[in-house]
Amino acid sequence: MQKITLDTITQAVIDHGDRGKSHPRLYEIYTSLVRHLHEFVREVNLTEAELQQGRDFLNQASHHTQEIPIGEIHLLTDLLGISELVELLHDTHCGTEGNLEGPLYVPNAPEWQMGDRLGIDAEGDTLFLSGRVLDLDGQPIANAVMDVWQPNSKGAYDIQDPSQPQGNFRGRFTTDASGKYTFETVVPLGYKVPDSGPSGELLRLLGRHPWRAAHIHFKVSAPKYTPLTSQIFIAGDPHLDSDTTFSVRSAIIQLQKHEASDEKAHNQSKPFYTSEFDFVLRPITPAEDHQAMAKQYDYTTK
Fold it and tell me: Taken in order 46, 48, 49, 50, is the CA torsion positive or negative?
């Protein structure tokens, strides 16, 4: 066995194994990760105590909590800007911009009819949100499925707030023949990311705030089109320029307030808001089609 030294250890780790014969792409990622991690350790002269602190942090971040049932690893990549960096790297600059899914998505949301109310929140300001799902030529995409989730008017998601019914402000809609969607919800409030765990402690130690700008999440999909995960943000939110996940880009909607004179149009008993936003999907590429077919295989499959 070769003698391990400061000069040889990095390459020894990279060369240990079949050097990518089984899984070339995994080996490419692994090789780069090892090189960068080893260089990081050298650059900061990491101590054993600091390494243990890092291990403890990652162990704590993997624990499930009421605030984040899947654990904080997803949140951590958002807070470090990694999630948004991946989005930016793969942004094709055509169609609606992709954005973070975030750690609070729940699959298999209830199916609603167009025009239905998304959730229960008696104190919230009603928002009627509508628009169309279009292709790159501006043609409507019928039967596109829209998966929507958001916090309530106090900035809380249902899975974090026991006072809300399960599935509150979550739903799936299907566009009509003209590609149109419309539903009733409430104006969401910006909120602090869960900060009682290790990620919150990290933010405090770095002097960073934990606030997210008010937003609504969407997943939009249709046959022969690349699935889109995105967010739309509410104009005027105080954290649009400092969202702690670095994810605010151009998908910002203006809200139009309607007073008593036109309340009856929507059968409302108090002022409400409306806004429109169109989603543009791009056609799926052959490479993406191939990747979708290969999803059944993971890196550990030979």
Answer: positive
How would you class 52 by CB atoms within 10 Å of its CB: exposed for 0-12, middle for 13-18, buried for 19 or more? exposed
Three-class secondary structure of residue 174 per DSSP: strand
- The Cα–Cα gap between 269 and 191 comes to 27
Please give the Cα distance from 274 to 185 (Å, whole number).
10
Q: At what angle do helices 198-206 and 48-61 cross, to 10 degrees?
A: 130
Can you read off the two tokens belonging to residue 212? 């997210």
The first and second tokens of residue 179, run together, are 């590609």
Structure token digits, residue 55: 């291990």
Q: How many other C-beta atoms can be found within 10 angstroms of the C-beta atom of residue 169?
A: 27
Question: Does residue 164 contact residue 152 with C-beta atoms inside 8 Å?
Answer: yes
Check residue 39 and report its DSSP letter.
H
Q: How would DSSP label each residue in 121-169? A: -TTSPEEEEEEEEE-TTS-B-TT-EEEEE---TTS--TTT-TTSPTTTT
Query: Are 121 and 186 spatial neighbours (Cβ–Cβ below 8 Å)?
Result: yes
Strand partners, 279: 133
Report the number of secondary-structure helices (H) and strands (E) in the chain.
7, 12
Joined together, the tokens standing for residue 94 give 């055509």
**What is 65-78 written as a DSSP string?**
-SS-TT-SHHHHHH
**Which pTM value belongs to this model?**
0.88
Segment 4-60, tens digit of pLDDT: 999 999 999 999 999 999 999 999 999 999 999 999 999 999 999 999 999 999 999
Question: 216-249, pLDDT tens digit by residue?
Answer: 999 999 999 999 999 999 999 999 999 999 999 9
